[in-house]
Amino acid sequence: MREVADGVFLVTVPTPFPVGPVNCYILDGHPLTLIDCGPRYPPAINELRAALDELGHDFLEVQQILLTHGHIDHAGLAGFIAAGGRDAGPENTPVYIHSEDLRRVANHQRYIRGRMQAYIDIAVRSGAPEAIVAAMKQDSLAEYFAALGESVPHAVALADGNKVSSPIGPLKVVWTPGHTRGCVCYAADEQHVLFTGDHVLLDISSNPSLDFEGPGISLLTYLDSLRRILTYDGYLVLPGHREPIQDLAKRVEELRADIEDKLDRLRDALGPAPTTMYDLSRILYGNYGLNQLVLALAETTDLARVLEQQGVARLVETEEHPGVICAMLNTKG
Ligand SMILES: [Zn+2]
Question: Is residue 46 part of a domain?
Answer without folding.
Answer: yes
